[in-house]
Amino acid sequence: MAKAETVIAVAKSFVGTRENPPGSNRQPFGADIDAKYKGWYNGNKNGYDWCTQYHDDMFLRAYGEAEARRLLCRPNKSYNLGAVVKYAWNYYAQEGRTGSKPRVGCSIFFRNDRGLSHIGIVQMYDDKYVYTYEGNSGTNHEYVTNDRYLLTDSRIAGYGYPAYDEEDTPYIVGKLYKKVCRDYLNIREKPSLSGKFCGRLDGSPVIRCCGVSIDEDGNTWIDIGNLWVCARYGKEVYIK
With a threshold of 0.70, does the pTM exceed it? Predict the structure, then answer.
């Protein structure tokens, strides 16, 4: 099953990767696509601007070609597709899978005064920021980086939603949920089982979701106000 945390884990593993040589636009993601997936683009793209190459290759590495095409709404034999941000947006849009709100593991699109200009992958978000993994970013646009932006940042053009198998996994920021498990939930400083313990959530309180994150083990966490509780652990649902 295709889940958001799979591509997030792969994207995270490449943070810090730099073009080689610097300034060349040559990097392992375009090289991987050029070598293994001849029909993904309309020709070899390594050496050109590479934010889309990084984005696409994370899905290819995580799920394989057939599943990546399904998730990203890319048709088979789309040989006219260049490694250009607007094409990635258009394929989502043709399937009605674009919007103005982030989701964990979705594609984030940016614009400049000439139109759509950049793409990344959403790692997590809260009621103020969206956190991303991006290629062709950082100093001189030479790195894979993890960044954050205000949700209101005018550079954000919108989001594309991959067709994950469990689309109900991400909770919605601002919506109220209820703790449904009988036992207490540990409150942690960060969305991870290794995060610092900060208390316990007991009883059956109504919870306002202030942010959503999925850890590397596939567990879903809810921000309850600068602190985190585990909402789904494996197949167990604690907050609904």
Answer: yes
